[in-house]
Amino acid sequence: MKSILIKNGRVIDPASGRDEVTSVLIRDGHVAAIGSSEAQVDQVIDASHMIVAPGLIDMRVSLREPGNEEDETIESGTAAALAGGFSTIACMPDTDPPVDSRAAAEFVILQAGRAGNCRVVPIGAVTKQLEGQELAEIGQLVDGGARAFSDAKQPIASAEVMRRALEYTAMMNRPIFHHPQVPELVAGGLMHEGFYSTLMGMPPMPAAAETIMIHRDLTLAEMTAGRLHLMGVSTGEGVEQIRRARERGVRVTADVTPHHLFFRDEHLQTFHSKYKVNPPFRTEADIECLIEGLKDGTIDVITSDHQPYAEEKITCELDQTPFGVVGLETLVPACITRLISTGILSWAELLAKLTVHPARILELDAGVLDVDRVADITIIDPRPTTRIDPHTFRSKGRRTPFADMELSGKIAHVLVGGELRFSDV
Amino acid sequence: MVSFKDYFQSGPVRWTQRHLLGLEHLSADEITLILDQAAEFKRLANEGHTKLKLLNGVVVGNLFFEPSTRTRTSFGLAAKRLSADTVDFSPSGSSLSKGESFLDTARNIEAMGVSLMVVRHKTPGAPMFLSQRLDSAVLNAGDGTHEHPTQGLLDLMTMREQCGDLAGRTVALVGDIRHSRVARSNIWGLTKLGAHVIVCGPATLIPPRIEELGVEVSYSLDDVIPRVDCVNLLRIQFERQRGAFFPSIHEYAHLFGMNASRLSRAREDVVILAPGPINRGVEITPFVADGSHSVILDQVSNGLAVRMAALYLLHRRQQELSSSPAPVDMTLI
Q1: Nearest CA in chain B to A186
Q2: What distance, in Å, lies between the first and last C-alpha atoms of chain B?
Q3: Biggest alpha carbon distance in chain B?
Q4: What values do phi and psi take at A420, rounded to 5?
Q5: Of all residues in chain A, what percent are helix, strand and coil, respectively (each to 5)?
Q6: Which pTM does this prediction carry?
Q7: Which of A61, A311, B104, B321 is the most exposed, fewest CB within 10 Å of its CB?
Q8: Per-residue pLDDT at B7 exceeds 90
Q9: A305 labelled catalytic
Q10: Would you say the ipTM is above 0.95?
Q11: Beta carbons within 8 Å of B2's beta carbon, 6+ residues apart
């Protein structure tokens, strides 16, 4: 395997607190040295003015294979992940059939290996067929490579099932990724309930649907000592509940998407489905709370919630098109624009939410840039401004609220296991 | 030779909209322009001029993806009175049932030479979706619980006929405000023309923050009734409700039904409207519906004139744009 020297980059490793302009030497797939240059290398990457970070991890991606390959395949999804700067992604079990068996988890890993892009970590189903009734064979899924469990966008409506799932997965110290939403409060809903849903006559999804479920989940996590990860928190009250639960020792983590930091319910006034997401875009006050949660650490992770769909599924009436937008290839520029350029987060704080924090939640040997560690590295050029053109995406999905927006920064290089898998310089 | 007062060219306000998707984005002047144009068509009809050659050679597509009787008939007749040809579409037994998409269906109908597309659909925003993708002018004939602009306009026309200038008048919209596209179009139209609007119904059928649209909210029709010039009784949208919004029809009628007792406490010249179809004995008793204050059938007649005006103005705008070397995009988006 060839040796690579990354020189003159600003090396930031949130895990160790390193933040310095230096060089990184890679040999045999591992970081051989930081700070010492070596004359004899096979390749030199000049990272002047760039950020050299641990390989980014997106722990909430839907890949659609098997079953909906017209939307995305593991190959196209992982290519998109690489282009977005991710050396590792965790994929949701919401395929057809869902990842609720050991064989299904092994299939994901096998296909990801064949694709040869980024690493893929399967998330197993909590319940069989994602139906929220019977627990899936969680132990066998762990043996098959599942690092966490989730019923994806299907909330586990039964408190009893959720309780048993938290108890059972706690036995293996694996987290449950839950979409916190009371299903009956959002049935048929298309957007946040508020002034704009009234204005547009749109079936609403009240914020209480999220906060009630978060309250239930936190109570059950506290009761069972299970590990709970709340996906896509979107409400200010939800953030506050998590903050208070943390203080009393509940084992809870949470994530947010970049698009929920940008867009409000009023954006759907255009009736354009690129603003149709679940949970829905909320209000400015909610966004301010999400940002506070990011700053004080209540929200640990930023995820793309990548939801690709084929063109024919998004060119239809608003109620006929599914929820969700793609996010892998816009996450980093969106975060730079929204969080770094505005001074809300430092680079170390942002990168922690994209590296070491998701690695810890998934218990991965990743997310750290240090000597002797596997050389998964992302190099970000924060300088250029890019107009987002979905037609250039590697993902088969094209629906993004960031289309035609000017965002800052781009991914320059991604190394996976010491191998340069993506470059755009 | 019929003397036709053409507001489009000679009036003080120019019609510049490419589509008619709702009243939200129309100015008071534009609303008045349509109402004046409709009044002109009504005058001509009353004089016996029921066939005008204003849309000769134009094809109007009536795309009703949701059941409708009066709106569909009204649009169809309006087109015929303007000498347009019409193409009708309904989803049952159509290519939609074979899996064709909404957009492809509309594109195919447009390809038959349609230039004015009347669209009714259960989904809010569906006409706007088409307006962004078709060359035709799109007229919203009701999109889910969003807007029903021609119904709003015909209600305005009827109230204006009864009350004169609507500025300073008080109008109550009673019933299922949450699920009513008519309510939203009425609110936009009435408030723009200076009327005071009270929305009245069970709390479960009043959507959140509706007062931010400039309306008063009341949960008591008994309190409201003595104060109003017009009452517009909205139908309970049983088909759009997804849960129990009130305990029973009997209780609804008891609290919010317009009956003789309530009518007796209203102003002597109160005007009673109901966009229909009405649920007799629920929103309105037969005594009121068929009584002297009711203008329900005037609404239906005025609907024809309003739809003629809408079709005519949009067609004229199309002609103007097609003759312009650099057409300006005047969509409502």
Answers
A1: B242
A2: 40
A3: 62
A4: -75, 110
A5: 35, 25, 40
A6: 0.92
A7: A311
A8: no
A9: yes
A10: no
A11: B44, B49, B52
